[in-house]
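Practice problem: predict the structure.
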Amino acid sequence: MSAVVNFPVKPEARPYIEAFTAPSDEPDWLARSRRHGLDRFAKLGFPSRRSEDWRYLDLRALEEHPLFPVEPPEKPEQPGVTIVDINDFILVLVDGRWVPHLSWLRDLPEGVWFGSLRTAMTERPDLARAALAGADDGSSFDALNAAFASDGFILDIAPDVELFAPIEIVHLSLAGGAAHTRNLISIGARSRVIVAENFFGTGRYWRNDVAAWRIGEGAALTRVAVIEEDAEATHLDRVSATLGDASRLDGFVLMLGGGTVRHEASVTLAGADAQCRINGAFIVAGGEEANIVTAIDHATTGGTTSELIKGVAAGRAHGAFQGKIIVREGAQRTDARQTSRNLILGRRAVIDTKPELEILADDVKCAHGASVGELDEAALFYLRARGIPLEEARRILVEGFLAEPIENIAHVAVRQHLLRRLSLKLGRLEDWS
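Answer:
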């Protein structure tokens, strides 16, 4: 059944409202959730560049040429950009839907549930409902995701479980259109896990990915993501994380491709003595634009945050970082540090950086800093004096600059995978001016 709304609809939202068809075989709670998300999106429409959170992205292409969910190819092939050789388990989503023959989910350890959102609707409806909750949070695209979500992944780990090999999720777009995916990672007390996600595809498409992470007392989540979308693609992803007492989050995103890419992370240190490390790196060239947005909320005592974001822009590209750390009243003994460092290659590239601190407690140690500059001419001269061609010397310096946050990743194979992807990207980069 197609959607009908009985109130004014934002003009840019109307094509999406008209394209919505409610599945007939879903439970009532999910139908209500979709309806609620659609109604909210109809009222909100697209975020405006007049909004501070969205001022650095141009979303007119999605307004003028809407993209809707499509059926994936009947028999997609094994994706080539994975680290599956070091993993015990892998889940592959093609155009927003789980592909069983490309995934390996058998023989999961006791206490671990890992699978697609659609599978969870039957086997673990409690997890499915938790993954699809929260349409009232975040941007209007969260609401649109709640309405159109076709699939996603869920990882639920019981207390006292440690997984040594990374769990991998591959997000692949082949057929064009839009992929709205909804994901949940829930980690029980004192458990440990590493999650690696790869995003890539071909052609013009829109990826709208929404995830919730829940990290229990004394638990630890390491999550790394590589975003290598097509030059015509739009990638929007949003993570909402909640940390319990003495828990730890290590998050890293490497943004290497996509016409318009935005990564948003909202982290709440809800438990005492929680630790959060959010690092990232992006490189944009040509007419690409990339935006990293973070909000770290220290809600109670003893929390620690370390944030390092590095960016490189070449050609006519535009990169941006917007980061905010909030220390609530009563969140004493907070230690929070935020750093943004950036390189401009050429006169037409632009990088904006906007770190912020909001401190409402007095017994804290907080600092932030930002810099935007060019390659070190002395270092460049040093390399060229030793017979290294100009383009290769530039590549070496840029790779060394961006590798710093990657080197903080403890898992050797994951770290090597990220460094390989970065090296390949720089090897293909043609516009250094």
